[in-house]
Amino acid sequence: MFLEEAEIRVSATKRNITLSAALTPEIKKDAITALNNSETNLANARDSIENNNVDEAIEELEEAKKWEEESNRAITSVAATPTSVAPTAESLTRAETTVPK
User: Which of 23, 60, 84, 87 could be disulfide-bonded to 45 (CB atoms 3.0-4.6 Å)?
Assistant: First the structure.
């Protein structure tokens, strides 16, 4: 069922964000907050389905999806940010092995 898949996906994404070393605390907070909102909408959708209120369930699912997308935007903003151009230890080692002596 779509609802169960969405709940599992949101939960897994929250876990990955929490464990990520690449994300700043602020980005993690923004992304997790968005996913918490998504979870709330998913729970509301589940309640609406149980109460046979299909229209309200659809609205809650659409809102949950928007929050999930908001979380993804927060995460991908990090990937789009240019990183330092300072050489890494690995690139320095590679450069040393290619220089003739």
Answer: 60
Give the structural domain span for 26: 2-98
Count CA atoms within 13 Å of residue 23 on its CB side.
22
Domain total in the chain: 1
Helix, coil or strand: residue 40 = helix
Calculate the average pLDDT of the chain. Answer: 83
Containing 13, the helix (H) or strand (E) segment is helix 2-19
Tell me whether residue 1 is exposed, middle or buried, using C-beta atoms within 10 angstroms of its C-beta: 0 to 12, 13 to 18, 19 or more.
exposed
DSSP 8-state secondary structure symbol assigned to residue 83: P
Residues 18-31: pLDDT tens digits? Answer: 999 999 999 999 99
pTM of the model: 0.74
Rounded CA separation 35/51 (Å)? 24
